[in-house]
């Protein structure tokens, strides 16, 4: 049975960093995967440090075709009927580093950039944190519809017997909030935008058709496992959307719904916008480990 990367389900870490890389010119798919695999094999877990490695779907498919799920890269922007756009910024490799403190995450990320220097260059870096454990910077609870702990692995990872078993599909987006405009709204208006109450995250009944909870309803579009975090400082900040799923379809369907392709545009997108967007395959830990040069 394939073994999923443990960091997908490793809840409770306070500090995070997301590093996206592009390959160095002349680097083969196999060389890039080998470099990432070797890094994963050598990261220390002291200080509650964790590492999740994701690869551009086409790249992983070229290196391990028998262990690749049916996933395509985020190569085209998602554009709604009114022109609202979620951009495509696909890269070749992503590292999600987590830890019990900023120092251990910093040490792990600087080591990673150095270790991968011969095969990949850092294209984008975001430092993030868990905001009040389960709140995003709108003040609302995040991940309310996440599955219970006993079901999370089933939602987040490809089942046994399917192509890419033990792996996961990751949608990574960086969203920037217009906090001045958002916090100018009264609480009732904010709750209608989200579709839930602010203090205790109870779903409104009825909720507006364009509420965020309606446009991303998992009973409608499919279930995913979210590991979102907050990023930024006083003047510029927002949410890192970190969504895992056993297949790409629910993730893509939610983006289309948010953009208004099958109904009203998500009201929350009036107050936040995506800066980045990429899909990655997160290979099973054992499959990745077999490709590390030290394993041979």
Describe what this molecule looks like in 3D:
The longest helix has 14 residues, at 29-42. The chain is built from ten helices and twelve strands. It has one domain. With 296 residues, the protein is α+β, with helices and mostly antiparallel strands. The chain has helices at 29-42, 57-63, 102-115, 149-156, 179-182, 187-194, 212-215, 218-221, 249-258, 285-290, and strands spanning 15-23, 50-55, 78-79, 85-86, 93-99, 120-129, 168-177, 225-226, 229-232, 237-245, 272-274, 278-282. The model has no long low-confidence stretch (mean pLDDT 96). The strands form two sheets. Strands 1, 2, 5, 6, 7, 8, 9, 10, 11 and 12 form a ten-stranded antiparallel beta sheet that branches. Strands 3-4 form a two-stranded antiparallel ribbon.
Notable characteristics:
296 residues, alpha+beta, ten-stranded antiparallel sheet, two-stranded antiparallel ribbon, 12 strands, 27% helix
Integer average pLDDT = 96
Shape: globular
Low-pLDDT stretches: none
Query: How far apart are the first and last residues' alpha carbons, in Å?
Result: 21 Å
Compute the number of structural domains.
Answer: 1
The beta-strand count equals 12
The SSE order reads: EHEHEEEHEHEHHHHEEEHEEH
- How many helices in DSSP terms? 10
Set out the fold topology:
Layout: E1 15-23, H1 29-42, E2 50-55, H2 57-63, E3 78-79, E4 85-86, E5 93-99, H3 102-115, E6 120-129, H4 149-156, E7 168-177, H5 179-182, H6 187-194, H7 212-215, H8 218-221, E8 225-226, E9 229-232, E10 237-245, H9 249-258, E11 272-274, E12 278-282, H10 285-290
Antiparallel strand pairs: 1-5, 1-6, 2-5, 3-4, 6-9, 7-10, 7-11, 7-12, 8-10, 9-10
């Amino acid at each position: 049975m394939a073994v999923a990367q443990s960091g997908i389900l490793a809840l409770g870490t306070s500090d995070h960093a997301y590093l996206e890389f592009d390959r160095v010119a002349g680097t083969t798919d196999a060389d890039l995967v080998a470099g990432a695999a070797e890094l994963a094999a050598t990261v220390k877990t002291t200080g509650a440090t964790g590492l999740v490695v994701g690869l551009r779907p086409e790249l992983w498919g070229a290196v391990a075709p028998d262990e690749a799920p049916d996933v395509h890269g985020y190569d085209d922007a998602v554009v709604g009927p009114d022109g609202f756009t979620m951009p495509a910024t696909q890269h070749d490799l992503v590292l999600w580093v987590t830890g019990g403190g900023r120092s251990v995450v910093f040490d792990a990320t600087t080591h990673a950039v150095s270790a991968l220097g011969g095969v990949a260059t850092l294209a984008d870096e975001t430092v993030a944190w868990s905001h009040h454990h389960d709140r995003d910077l709108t003040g609302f609870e995040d991940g309310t519809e996440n599955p219970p702990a006993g079901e999370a692995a089933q939602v987040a990872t490809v089942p046994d017997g399917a192509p890419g078993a033990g792996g996961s599909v990751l949608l990574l987006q960086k969203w920037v909030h217009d906090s001045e405009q958002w916090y100018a709204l009264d609480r009732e208006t904010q709750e209608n935008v989200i579709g839930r109450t602010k203090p205790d995250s109870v779903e409104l009944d009825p909720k507006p058709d364009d509420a965020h909870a309606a446009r991303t309803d998992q009973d409608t579009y499919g279930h995913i496992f979210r590991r979102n975090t907050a990023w930024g400082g006083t003047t510029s900040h927002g949410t890192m959307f970190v969504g895992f799923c056993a297949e790409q379809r629910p993730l893509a369907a939610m983006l289309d719904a948010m953009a208004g392709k099958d109904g009203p545009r998500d009201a929350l997108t009036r107050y936040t916008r995506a800066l980045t967007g990429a899909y990655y395959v997160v290979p099973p830990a054992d499959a990745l480990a077999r490709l590390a040069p030290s394993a041979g």
